[in-house]
């Protein structure tokens, strides 16, 4: 699942492409928004909030022509496991359609132009030169995965496989979209003490589960959970109230540092050196390999992340949602 740093980079890309521009047309391919239209509105801001993307739009210039109403709106989306926003240069697309130019075969997706190159599984094309593709965000597989399109004079911003696409009045962002989230670990209003207070409020929870609960602090995902707990020698299943004094603060402070170090990188590294063609981790994805600290074989484990999704009021009947983690039975032994 894309984590807080992935969302930060997606918002930076969208902000550079859209902020201050007028939407010429929009296309929402989710049932609830099928008849919605935000044409004529200006993109005021693009804001990450934990793992949520908030595209804020101005008031409508002519409310009579817009079913979405006159007041400022926020377009909400969540990347979940495999969503991604992409930005395409409309001038290049228009040039490709000029008379005399070779056209794509009938039925071909306009978002996968001819001549594209594959690098390490990522799809790149000339129309994507505007931004680098983050290595930790999945690539949309074609037009059938599109859920939202915003077109300006110069670009098309396309949301592939994004989830929870909603339009709400901007004044209702907090109560309806993100108000339940804890302090944003990459946000300007990050509050360490509040995050520690929320984590400590449920002392019987496993620290590995508590860190992923976005109601405690927003932005940590499985990668940073695994790496932070390994680097602080913390057992993922240890109860919050069993941690030595100061350990909880050490864990959260390190997670905050790691996300900030990686927020402007297309590939992550937690090992103290810049990634060179691939992400660099201590433990994430390395179960079965020797621990880089003590040489013990890293184990593969599962931890239940049920009730930790985007729904602020999850069902009591939610099923288990087991996530795979790697951990060192020696460095992270239970105490």
pLDDT < 50 stretches: 96-109, 112-136, 308-312, 314-319
Largest sheet strand order: 1-8-9-5
Helix-strand topology string = HEEEEEHEEEEEHHHHHEE
Distance between the termini: 30 Å
| Backbone shape | elongated
Mean pLDDT: 83
Summarize the biggest pleated sheet.
4 strands, antiparallel
Tell me the radius of gyration. 22 Å
Class by SSE composition:
alpha+beta
Beta strand count: 12
Total helical segments: 7
Proportion of residues in extended strands: 15-25%
Residues in helix, %: 10-25%
Please provide a brief summary of the model.
The chain is α+β, with helices and mostly antiparallel strands and 335 residues long.
Question: What does it look like?
Answer:
Residues 93-128 are annotated as: Disordered. This is DNA-(apurinic or apyrimidinic site) lyase. It comes from Kocuria rhizophila. GO terms for molecular function: class I DNA-(apurinic or apyrimidinic site) endonuclease activity; damaged DNA binding; oxidized pyrimidine nucleobase lesion DNA N-glycosylase activity; zinc ion binding. Residues 2-104 form the Formamidopyrimidine-DNA glycosylase catalytic domain. The strands form 4 sheets. The chain has a 4-stranded antiparallel beta sheet with strand order 1-8-9-5. A 4-stranded antiparallel beta sheet has the order 2-3-4-10. By secondary structure, the chain is of the alpha+beta class. Residues 96-109, 112-136, 308-312 and 314-319 have low confidence and may be disordered. The chain contains 7 helices and 12 strands. The protein is elongated. A hairpin with a 3-residue loop joins strand 8 and strand 9 (155-160).
């Amino acid at each position: 699942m894309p984590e807080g740093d992935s969302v930060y980079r997606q918002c930076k890309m969208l902000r550079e492409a859209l902020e201050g521009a007028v939407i010429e047309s929009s296309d929402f391919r989710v049932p609830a928004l099928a008849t919605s239209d935000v044409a004529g509105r200006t993109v005021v801001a693009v804001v990450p909030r934990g793992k949520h993307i908030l595209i804020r739009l101005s008031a409508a210039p002519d409310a009579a022509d817009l079913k979405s109403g006159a007041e400022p709106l926020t377009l909400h989306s969540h990347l979940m496991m495999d969503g991604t926003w992409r930005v395409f240069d409309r001038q290049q697309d228009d040039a490709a359609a000029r008379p005399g130019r070779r056209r794509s075969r009938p039925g071909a997706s306009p978002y996968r132009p001819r001549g594209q190159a594959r690098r390490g599984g990522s799809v790149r094309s000339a129309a994507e030169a505007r931004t680098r593709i983050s290595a930790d965000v999945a690539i949309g597989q074609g037009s059938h995965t599109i859920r939202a399109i915003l077109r300006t004079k110069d670009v098309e911003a396309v949301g592939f496989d994004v989830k929870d696409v909603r339009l709400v009045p901007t004044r209702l962002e907090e109560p309806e979209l993100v108000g339940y989230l804890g302090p944003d670990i990459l946000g300007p209003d990050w509050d360490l003490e509040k995050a520690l207070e929320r984590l400590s409020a449920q002392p019987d929870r496993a620290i590995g589960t508590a860190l992923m609960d976005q109601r405690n602090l927003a932005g940590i995902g499985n990668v940073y959970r695994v790496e932070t707990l390994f680097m602080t020698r913390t057992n993922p299943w240890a109860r919050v109230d069993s941690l030595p004094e100061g350990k909880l603060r050490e864990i959260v402070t390190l997670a905050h540092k790691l996300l900030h170090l990686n927020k402007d990188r297309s590939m992550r590294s937690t090992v103290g050196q810049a990634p060179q063609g691939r992400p660099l981790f201590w433990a994430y994805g390395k179960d079965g390999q020797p621990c880089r600290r003590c040489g013990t074989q890293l184990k593969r484990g599962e931890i239940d992340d049920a009730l930790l999704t985007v729904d602020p009021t999850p069902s009591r009947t939610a099923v288990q949602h087991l996530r795979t983690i790697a951990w060192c039975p020696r460095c992270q032994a239970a105490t």
